[in-house]
Amino acid sequence: MMILMDELGEGNEASDYWNEYEAMQAIVEEDGWDGAWYRRYFDADGTPLGSKENKYGQIYLNAQSWAVISCFCSYERGLQAMDSVYERLNTEFGIKLSAPGFNGFDPKVGGITTYPPGAKENGGIFLHPNPWAIIAETSLGRGDRAYQYYSQINPAKRNDSIERYECEPYVYPQNILADEHPQFGLARNSWLSGTSSWTYQAATRYILGIAANYKGLTIRPCIPSSWDGFTVTRRFRGAWYEIKVSNPNHVCVGIKKILVDGEEFDDLYIPAFAAGTRHLVEIELGKAES
Predict the structure, then answer these.
(1) From residue 10, how far is each of 1, 7, 20, 229 by CA, in Å?
(2) Same domain, yes or no, for 217 and 247?
(3) Are 76 and 175 in the same domain?
(4) Cα gap 41→110, rounded to integer Å
(5) How many CA within 13 A on the CB side of residue 267?
(6) Are 81 and 193 members of one domain?
(7) Residues linked to residue 173 through DSSP beta bridges, in sequence order
(8) What's the number of domains the chain is made of?
(9) Rounded Cα distance, 134 and 180, in Å
(10) What's the whole-number mean pLDDT along residues 92-101?
């Protein structure tokens, strides 16, 4: 909303939103940081959940990914929080929602404790939030880890382990039993998930880095360092863009040079050309020349 209000020339409204944002950011940074990750929330009496103080539910995925996506946290804290995700929550089948799982019903916490540890919202691999971790990692410039998270939840990867996975290898399930559960790797509730749409956004807008903006098209890839590059054809406001990205230095992020229709281009936004026209955008990744 802040960016939209600025674009519409509504400076007072934009300023109000920025003030609210900064106030929320200060509270999250002061009260939400737990030392190596962000707390999930607080009970009415001020008791935290998602803290090292807890016996169960010490760390939650969403508190880390959204602290980064929202730009509430500093770059250094973002790295630390997402490293905690990798160390405490990641598995070969995807990222767990939380850990460790509650072992027995807790009326104060509620319904998630009705599931056994490692199942569904109680420390299971709930796939819907996994793309948010991908987006957070690209925001930190870590294309290798972002692509690792993208690849490990790809249903096609399970084609050779269907006996364990037990879901269609062409659609995302809602959840997968995690490593605290004896049936680790068993997927359930296929088709019942917002994972596919969010993974599409994570792949196209954040790994490939191609996104529509009010001012034009932005292209800021964050790819695996092993990639030589990629090509994409994108239609934007009726015009066609042939996008060729090369990565001769095998970096994850950083734009060294942009050519639009053969001419050097130094703006952040590729302009919206006339509908029906075709244009070539060439990008070389690497350290920008000073």
Answers:
(1) 11, 8, 16, 40
(2) yes
(3) yes
(4) 14
(5) 11
(6) yes
(7) 190
(8) 2
(9) 23
(10) 97
